[in-house]
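DATA SHEET
Item: assembly model
Revision: 1
Owner: S.N.
Input lines:
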Amino acid sequence: MLGHKVLDTHAVVIHRGVPRMLAAACTACALLCVPRLLRCSRCGSGRFTASPLDPVGVLYAFSEVAVAPKGWTVPYRVGYVDMRAGIRLFARLAFDLNVARPGLPVELQVKPCQGQAGRYYYQFIEAQASDSDPAGAQRVDMPGAPEGVST
Amino acid sequence: MRLGLHARAVGISGTGMVRFARRLDLTVPQLGAQAADEAVRESGLDRSQITSIYCGTVFGGPLTAQKIGRELGLTGVEALNVENACSSSATAFRLACLAVAAGVHEHALVVGVEKLSHLGSGPLPLGDEDIEVSNGLNMPALYAMRAGRYMNEYGLRPEELALVAVKARRHGLLNPYAQVRAETTVEAVLASKPIASPLTVLQCCPMGDGAAALVVSASDAKGTGGMTTVKVHASHLTSGKFMADSRDMTSPEVTVRCAQETYESCGIGPEDIDVVECHDAFTIAEILYYEALGFAPQGQGIDLLKAGTTSLGGRVPFNPSGGLLCRGHPPGASGAAQLVEVARQLQGRCGARQIGRDRARPARFGLTHVTGGGIYGFDHAACCIHVLGV
């Protein structure tokens, strides 16, 4: 899908039948990052746990983009969202900007790519009536930096 | 970095620049060599006295410094190629200053060069490995979101934002090196082609080609030409701090921090600065940088513009060259071009766009500011600030 960040299977978990993006949670200080870095930017730890990202957030900034690389469909809408989980995420917006405003409650939606098995794309939609609760999805330790490797 | 206390004083002994435009007739090294040749001639030095070349370019290809040296007959010297996105040639200038200040070289040639005309039109390619770029972020969109957030927080109106472009065009008209040399109006700016809301095409820097060059010399070195030497009072380079969580997009932390550290290093502050060339790649950028560089409180930058403070004839003109909005923004060339502009302003050589004509005292200090790159997690990846003086 031109112009969309595509997530592979290992970056997504199916929680209560709904795809959720996996973030990396530092095992030492719990800081989240997407995508996972080699070392935690806050404490330097190299160990992370894959953590289903709480999809709820509020819109921080947005724009409708009218020029893009060849082959992309324009215009498209993008925005930064401050997630309830504590990170800021950039993604496409799947709603018109006439309803957009800083502070608008939104929800991260992860959807399968058409014709690409096991691959997903993500975008923000206006928040649904009920919050999503990713608790209960299986957590998986993520390989981190080898011990003793200097940064 | 403080220059002059613990190291030799450093100055600019020669400058060169080509007109920024679409230059389909010249290769990158040929374009750079034209600017470099002017700088060397202006310095009055024999080429044998120049023992290093520092070249900043982003898309110019490998070994551009050496290729430029080949054009000039300046080979077998220390040559270094620098890529730091839009801060490339300002970074190259800093490295040259450090080498001369440390006594490694007496004279160093700095060149910034870039050709974007072969890339066609549209936003610069930023590489698709970045998680945000691959999902639709480009530089106009990034600045557009900053503009939208700023307008929401501080009540800036679209027509006020357009005033930045109107001022830039007024200055650019007077600059023979500028790519865009035609005035405009608020109405025309707002009615121009949408790029990323709320930014329109006349609020964005044009694609083009350009080159600028300087000769950096030890202030006590012999053999320089008769031009008034411009001293380098401060040189500071930093990278952005990675932040995965919420941050204030209306106050670019890398510029705020770089400016504070620069002022502390030289004891020269905004109140002392007579002219600024800042990174006005998009209209909102100039407003943000009035504030981030310490010339206006946050949220009040537009007041400087509306009062004429930052226009030619004002207390501290910003971008008397027309800035990136009018001179153009070939990334590798912009840093050096800003330095050339400020140096020539301080030397009183800028003709119709000369600052300080109606002042009691001539201009003494100028500041150049350029940022580099939009990558995930950073306000900008790099920021490079210099303070020059006479």
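QC remark: The two ends of chain A are 35 Å apart (CA to CA).
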